[in-house]
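Can't attach files on this board, so I'm pasting raw text. These are the components:
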Amino acid sequence: MASRFKEALNSGKFVITSEVAPPKGTNLEKMFHHIDLLKDIVDAVNVTDHQSSVMRYPSLGGCLAVKERGGEAIMQMTCRDRNRMALEADLLFAYSRGIGNILCLTGDAVPVGDHKDAKGVFDLDSLQLLKAIRQMASGEDLGGNKLDGAVEFCAGAIVTPEARPIEPQLIKFEKKVEAGAEFFQTQAIYDLENFADFMVHARKLKAKVLAGIVLLSSARMAKYMTENVPGIFVPPDFIDELSKVPKEQMLAKGIEIAGRTIAALKKEALCDGVHIMAIGKEEVVPDILAAAGL
Amino acid sequence: MKSITRQKTIEEIQQGLKGLDRIFIIGCGTCTTMTKTGGIDQVTEMKQKLQDLGKRITGWTVIPTACDDMTEAAMKENEQFIRSADVILSMACALGVHRMSLYIGKPVIPAVDTLFIGVEETPGFFREACTQCGQCLLGETGGVCPVTACHKGLVNGPCGGTNNGKCEVDKEKDCAWTLIYNRLKEQGRLDLMRRYQPPRNHHIALKPRSVRIQ
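---
Top answer:
Structure tokens for the assembled complex are below.
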């Protein structure tokens, strides 16, 4: 049976996803609150997997919470912390508990996180994980053994339209499409002209793309991301726009920019939807959607 | 091929030598000489440092190549001095420590950490070029090894952490997949990068790996 998210993707509507981050610890209240805030206003909620290599409550646990609270979950799965056996086992468990969507990621490097001495596994990469999901859907595990009960997932991946150089990323993007990625959520995009160029390429491959919208909460944050986060480029115009308003109004300005970007993407039918990442400011996702006229 | 080493701190060496006062030092004339971590100069320096700390040095030698069978002969030549020591302090790489542990029966304490097998790219600059994975991909990657040169060992292209040709773990470090892309593009062989690479076999040979040449 197709997942609710897959149905939304195939319906031709402008799809909206957002994400929640599990906590560091067992106090789940804040995550529950964010899930409740998002579950009825987006088509699916991603649950991050030890994002930035910081150890947290697992994505799988967060996804079960999304489901229990009536939402549609996309389980983010990185290849950093588990070998192929552990990944396969988690896929079996997720499927058995009604999780229908997986986002396959390589995962950030261990040394950028908070367990700097830990071993980075990377037994599979994001592409091989996608293929593994397809193989498991055909009733076989990666060892070539028959599964007693297969899985069925809507599996997707990520792409970075503003990576420099872009060509190596595009080659990997094509490989992911060939491997059967049913959707793509992109790294943050701000420059719509650049994104439109990328989409010309994506459309040729018939890939479903949800543009990544990262909320700019202040001019400082925007500058920091441009300078330090690979594949993110905030145009100087946006940074100027944020700098011109008083500090206490910067968040509202960031919401306005995000809303404006989403509205433009939708109006020009540039892509199939958006993936909103509010990074700690999940409370304002409804405001972003309102600003976008959605 | 060179075994690249880094000398342990004197505190760490002292910790290893705790309660062992009579010491015989063995250096190596090949890799640790080249990396200045265990050649004649470093061995004599170490001798002085340990004497200053109140240790007794029963003797020292620098074996031309501490990882091969010359080690046995060199140790036999110095047998009486080694026997009168409590411990051998090795200033050869880990391969030398293995060899030294086979003869005379004295405990061997390493004074250096063995970091990687590397090549000298420019004078004094050593870089890891091969991790001996047993499934050489270099023919498909323009001679740049993704298993070694990519921090994550990715074989299907770059991750999203690549930034203007550099790696997310270190802004000074080249992204292996940008290097591979550039090389293959120059050679007109970008089709190789489009090829799917399946998951690697981590048990091509079971550890500890060995081979017998007929």
